[in-house]
# Entry
Amino acid sequence: MTTQTSVRLSICIPVYNFGPFVGQTLDSILGQPGMDEAVEVLVVDGASTDNTEEVVGERVRRWPNLRYVKLTKRGGIDADLAESVSLAKGEYCWLFSGDDLMREGALIKALAWLDQGHDVYICKHSNCDRDMHVLNEHPVFRTDEVRVAELGDGAQRLGYLTEGITSEALFSFMSGLIIRREKWLSVESQDQFMGSCWAHAARLLAAAQMQLRVCYVGEVWLDKRGDNDSFLDRGIVNRLRIAVDGYQGIAHQYFGKDSEETAQVRRLLRNDLKLPVWMYARRRTLDVPELENRKELDRLMDACFSDPGLAPWLTRNAYRYAPLTAYRIFAFLSRCPPAVPFGKGQGLSRAYVLATSFNLHRHTEPWGCSGADAGCAAGSSWAGSRNRGGGRCFDGQYG
# Structure
């Protein structure tokens, strides 16, 4: 039996109704080289109503490193993720989605990197379809060279953000983060962001007000499952709202509304949410106006593309005035495969994978974005499309 001080790394997996996926996730982790008494896998179940407990329980009986905690009520991704770190025994916590897969050899690599003693590690990932066929690698920075920055230092922080390509550089994707537990616990929960799907990022940026040393390793350590969104009934405009308002709200809180850092955050969001996403959403406001609000979509577009410059201006005007039939042209120019036809409700799941991959932790309906959980943040296969085709988020459950 390991003690808290003897555990080097806790792999924290918050789940809700992940029965169809969590077994495959655990199997990708538990058999890794390096899985010894210095590593624990902790599944925190937000009161699932499916067979999650049975799936995890079968593996608990076989793997002494695996712990399972079932909560008495559903708290939402932000609360359950925080609870998983609180319950963890490790010096570091790898925040991991219950439907992603760890690459073979990733654990031993991660353990070696921890010896450098940074506060946060960010790895890369691939984007996959629902059946885990790899589509592309998701870009994080302009290059994959290792970079280390002290985010408590203004000059280093701005340089770090300037080199970023997508919002994953600023902690948007849960499964790509390994955090020092002591640093996480050194700041209080940022309750104003609970329910936003961004509370983990807010807490890390709160820690960075003093000191937070971040290391980007530039290696692919996991495969991210796509086309797994059970929260489509709330609509793409709502997802865009969570992404744009949520992340800009965090930037305003920790960097200041008119700061250079906040301008860089908007740039990262624009890379995540390229024009085809907005054109698709615009079409949805025509197809299902009872679900998708055009005025709200216009507001979000203006908020995200408000900066001066030719590119934001062109995007705003293309969104407002270009015919919707130009959607496929914009998709081609973004080097992204076009989504399925725009028929009302037709093929929305596939379109969502392409049009939404803003890579945060994917918490949607199984997670629930009601009550304590406002919803999953967005992302987009259009995201970072200039680099190997981009990324994705907006998709299923806790991930």
